[in-house]
Amino acid sequence: RVVSCRARRRAAPAGKKRTMTETIPTAADYDAALHGVALAEEHNAGRILMRGRDRAALLHRLSTNDILRLQPGHGTRTVLTTPIGRIIDLLTVYALDDALLLVTGPEQGGPVWAHLKKNIFFQDQVTLEAAGRAYGQLALYGPAAAHTLARLGAPDLSALPLHQHRTVTLAGATVIVSARLPIGGPSFTLLVPAAQVEAVHAALAQQGTALLDTATFDVLRVEAGYPATGHELSTEYIPLETGLADAVSFTKGCYVGQEIIARMESRGRLAKRLMGLRLSAPTAATAKLDVAGQEAGDLTSVVISPRYGPIALAYVRSAHAAPGTVVGIAGSGARGTVVELPFSE
Question: Which of 198, 240, 292, 314 has the most beta carbons within 10 angstroms of its beta carbon?
């Protein structure tokens, strides 16, 4: 198999982009995610437990979504934003009986911890607890994902609503299973006690689960139009430009960065939009776009898809974001045709 060496590197911190050549998937793993079941290791995501009476109120005022409405067993995505509405990190939040469990982007546990800590004031009854070493994190994708979990003793989770979670027993381990954005079919996040990760991993492997490498997952997530830390998620961009409307509440009231985001929503005008590009040839993963010699946006991710050929994610200026628009790519002879996300035949 051919895999870009740079694709194996850890994600860059938020606000910094990785520069990498196009990534090429492993065929068997790629097919498993779309037609069977595949597993991705996500141990480098940060995991933080927020406890105390004011835990929801604190996260509510620091991020874009309505955290106060969450009930145990439910979850949501929310964005930590700067005072000017730029993305610090995209979090998935799970409401437990006595805590909020936050899952950060890759390698963002430390920065998110520091950001939360500095915003806890003397009157706030909130404590933070590092959970990265207490839990391992796996992702299960593909149309057979729910059936695979059921064969290991879980109930039928195929209809579990997005981000809701259940506690189940898998291979003797008590595992938090939540529904996540799909690839290939209903997909799941597994939060596994650290001491039992290997046992759960082995049990899934015995069920014929393929293991996704970084390059293969990158192709699948670009096809689906999902933004990633260090590429589309950084302090250069605003959640609405990134298509994260599900992570933003327009009725919750004030939070850090709310004024900028609310103004953009009320005016219905975005400076740029995250779009797909069908490329005429592979190119570097970060570059400026142009139309008739004028800057038209930024290329953020490039992969070679077995189904679609060379494709990319890019922030395209709204004036040039209509599907079918052809953009040039600086420093390359390649051109890109703008398409809506996700990619389709």
Answer: 314
